[in-house]
Amino acid sequence: MLARSALRLGLSAAALGATLDLAAAQAEAPPPSRARPPAAEKAAPVRPRPFTLDDLFARLQATKDPVEAKGIVGAIERRWLRSGSDTADLLMSRALEALQGGDQPLAIELLDRVVAFQPNWAEGWNKRATVFFMMGDTTRAMADLEQVLILEPRHFGALAGIGAILRNNGDDKRAFDAFRRALAVNPHMPDLKEAVDRMAPDVEGRDI
Fold this sequence. Notes:
Elements: E1 13-15, E2 26-28, H1 53-62, H2 66-80, H3 86-100, H4 104-117, H5 122-134, H6 138-151, H7 156-168, H8 172-185, H9 190-204
Antiparallel strand pairs: 1-2
Helix pairs in contact: 1-2, 3-4, 4-5, 5-6, 6-7, 7-8, 8-9
């Protein structure tokens, strides 16, 4: 904020000489102004623009450092976990606590509320798909994962999950494609890359 100087100097009186024939006269002459010039406005510190998800994905694909990649993945996942609604975030937090405590039915019940309350939040569907998969319900898990990709096509976790379900069902060709799509978004998934390398000779050698 621009600073202002409040200091003002008083005017000094200068007496003029009087002659014998004229009455004494006085006049005031102001001294040269010594008021301080306004202080220069202090420049606000320049804050870096926060990274968008697009920025984070671009950095994830560009980096060759696995430590940096891990940090970027963590930043992306934290963004995904923010719904923009305090209510949905609270329900998600309780669902994750229930899941950690081994109460999968309660986790599903809470996640049902999450997706009903915030249907455009991809992570709500993804977390419910995870619980369905853990419970062995791959049909509903697959349906939720497909919804995740509608909302966030770059969700490498959902792509990897779809690939795992397809592979378990014997559909290696489509599983291979899902794995490769996940790696195109996040090339720092060594287990997935190893699976793709193992599957490549068989899948790419077939005319399917």
